[in-house]
What we know:
Layout: E1 15-17, E2 20-22, H1 24-35, E3 40-44, H2 50-54, E4 57-62, H3 67-76, E5 80-81, E6 91-96, E7 105-110, E8 114-115, E9 120-121, H4 126-130, E10 133-135, E11 138-140, H5 143-158, H6 163-174
Parallel strand pairs: 4-7
Antiparallel strand pairs: 1-2, 3-4, 5-6, 6-7, 8-9, 10-11
Amino acid sequence: xxxxSTRAVVLGAxxxxxxxxxxxxxxxxxxxxxxxxxxxxxxxxYAPVSEMAESMDVDVFIAPADRKRTTVLLxxxxxxxxxxxxxxxxxxxxxxFRLPSRVCTMLDVVYGLYYGEELHELIGADRVLATSMLSxxxxxxxxxxxxxxxxxxxxxxxxxLSAPNEVRARALHAx
Length: 175
């Protein structure tokens, strides 16, 4: 429904955006981050936007300086932080169990953009946040940065283009 505010979403309801249904816990999350003035960007699962409705997992990039505020906010709105998982720097994982249609919704909060086994840091990652755009009620990377960071992920983290990643690449190319 064009023009629907994510702030109007209640748990158990659905929000139709761009012909895709976004889980209400995610709509609530994006609205809470926006209201708290915590810059964020969804890293994957939005192109095509229907992927967010189908996926149980969403990745969000947040600046390291906002880590403490984000942790407090996530706890306040019902997300549970998982036990620390070694070897997954700089990720923190959260789960939300409030949707009866899902076992849980998983959130991967990334506090830096690193690629490959050697953890090559993307210098200037703050530009991914600064140039993000509002799309379907949540923040996404600028299209050329989305393609660039996705290419780094595929080349350095995955070392091959899988069929699902080919679909994502084509969707990003179409933006």
